[in-house]
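Purpose: get a first structural picture of the assembly so the mutagenesis plan has something to point at.
Setup: two entries, given in the order below. No constraints added.
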Amino acid sequence: DVKVTQSSRYLVKRTGEKVFLECVQDMDHENMFWYRQDPGLGLRLIYFSYDVKMKEKGDIPEGYSVSREKKERFSLILESASTNQTSMYLCASSLDSYEQYFGPGTRLTVT
Amino acid sequence: QKEVEQNSGPLSVPEGAIASLNCTYSDRGSQSFFWYRQYSGKSPELIMSIYSNGDKEDGRFTAQLNKASQYVSLLIRDSQPSDSATYLCAVTTMMRDSSYKLIFGSGTRLLVRP
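Result (structure tokens, whole complex):
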């Protein structure tokens, strides 16, 4: 079974703080993805990575950056958190680009 | 903007009935199609994938694909209250560098009444 884990289930941060969300997968998958999910807007792709040290912007990269120093780990960074970044953040991994497996999600609240 | 459309629901069916969930997509070049189930407060779980026209069955679930009509559906037979969840349709779309990404619909909420 694919196992994707995320560092926190719930997180509360203040406006302006730097926030790190970590994702680890144990299936040696090449591809990893970060999404956010908001009511009525569905899942939106923030960033993805097809290899170590490689990153590509998704549909809504503004205000976010990512890091992939090891194959199994993909981090999402909010450089200066804002209230409009309050959301559910979901990490996914896949062997190819197609069947993606999600972690449990991190519900981030920025106050 | 390439899109995946789903009726938000809720779709309410009695226990034991067949639930039919539908999805249309705009990108004629899409090749791979997926259904995810998401329980409230949880992350999406992949339940079906389909790559060619026709039907694909897995237990109580049947995925149906019609590329000409750009339509994909999920049938759930003998619906159970535990099937109550939001079902997300996801479709691959090609990006500028010829790689693929998934586009998700906003989901259909299914409610199975005991």
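Chain A touches chain B through 18 residues (CB under 8 Å).
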